[in-house]
Amino acid sequence: MSPIFRLLIRRLGISLIVLIGVSMLIFAIARIIPGDPARIALGPNATVQQIAKLRAEMHLDEPLLVQYGYFLADVIQGDLGTSLYTNRPVTLDIAQFLPATIELVLLAGVIMVGLGLPLGIVAARYRGRWPDHLVRVFALLTVSAPSFVWAVILMLLFAFYLPLFPIAGRISDIYEIDRATGFLTVDTLLAGNIAAFGNVVSHLILPAVALALSGIGQAARLTRANMVETYQKPYIEMAQAFGFYPSRIARIFALKPSLIPSLTVIGLDFAAMMGNAFLVEAVFAWPGLSRYGVAVILRKDLNAIMGTVLIIALTFLIVNIIVDLMIAFLNPRIRYSTRTGT
Amino acid sequence: MTRTFRILLRNPLSLVGFVLVTLVVLMAVFAPWIAPFPTHNGAVVDFLNNNRAPSAQNWMGTDLVGRDIFSRILYAYQISLILGVVVLAIATPIGTVFGLMAGYLGGWIEAVLMRIVDVFLSIPPLVLAIAMMGVLEPTLTNAMLAVTAMWWPWYARLVYAISRSEREEGYVLAAEVIGASTRHIVFREILPNCLPAIITKMTLDMGFVIIIASSLSFLGLGVQPPTPDLGSMVAEGARYLPDSWWLTVFPGLAILVAIFGFNLLGDGLREILEVEE
User: Fold this and answer.
1) Predicted ipTM?
2) Is the pTM above the cut of 0.90?
3) Cα-to-chain-centroid distance, residue A120
């Protein structure tokens, strides 16, 4: 069995434990709600019988542990209950809204890595000189405001004052696209409609940048710090003594080991984006999971709240497993190790 | 401590951070005296002067019901700082004790505690806080509670990492050999070595806590009107872009300035700490 495969199995095991913990936490949060969930669900005009009936359906009269058991059993079968807000199964709602958010977060992730790593490399290369200071100030500035502030500023500058990008939404109304996958970039390409594809991308850019900004700074700073550390290692000195070009040393010898710690944090940033999407989607009227999440929270729609948080936690765990595998792939000590490393 | 402080202020960026933080704290503390319209922190209505652009009388304009935005920003700073201090004052000791226990005692305590921490860290902080506020009533106390609940695990992990490596150090072994109690070793021997990292993290976290709290109120899940809050001010004004830009831009910049100050300061502290190590 290859070490990477063994690592995958191990990570899946840990993730499963964490996921059970997450389900307990979400269940606990849902039960600290003041008042009777059944009464809240039915509204102020419900009769006593109606409430009693729903209480029985929701197993609210059983002990907490039994209630958790029912909840877990439902979740494992993929049943997240019915949303009180849309009157549809929560899974169906999430399936409808999740693609928009994933599309946004993925592009933001690409922007974060695509700009953050090069900026960090440049800063490390010119350590102590003005590009380094510039990157540092930029990084500190971008993490210094919540993403809704960046969203508002970007919208004001690049949608209102300089009308380069659309103000809100995912696609202009003039395009009729069959939403087969829910990912509009994919759907427009499947339809072969290049103009619509361009329209979708232009809608994506501002929210994605707003979402990525704080991550860009963090990725840049971390990459810089790791590069600087790697440059002090003896093997880099040796490469320099052998007379390799500095650019080659940077690319081949310094970058790869420096990427490993960055990847972990990029994984965490990715998770943070799932949260910050709540803010950015609100500003840009983006019809994603977060907008759904806020809508159901304001209506105290318990099933939908629990489902949304569970799906986000699940997405995050999957991203982390992918990150761990990438680290294992980059790190020969793990890749070739004969025993299970941590 | 004074030496660290002197080194800190020699760095121009840290100095800027120190000045910004001092300014924000002073503005918050003396808000009732600085604010041109001190009554405007509550439910005051002045429709004759509503939605006015910045002028000599209202430096940052007035909001939709005619309240002075500058005055409201000063009072919003009060709320943000109180929230940040309370959250960190509760979350840090809890996280520190858990981290120390897991790191020093090891065994099943370590396994259980760190898995619990993993659970909390596997949900994005903002999502967890949003979910908690979703079921709780949106008040300042509950917002503090929600943010605290998601904040302590980060300290637990930080302290855990340090104390686990300190466990094998000579001075800890020496204390064990002479028969010091576990409590003595944990709090008198290991804890002091975690403090610099904890304090640095607190400075950096002050900004993050304010970000999370303002994000909650931006979504309508935090402090409720008419209490001024930077997040809800931005949310309220965003609908009137681009014409009434002052409604959003000034509260937004106010968040940026305060947090930028804390980050510059915390970043400088961290640098000194790393050099000393």
Assistant:
1) 0.86
2) no
3) 22
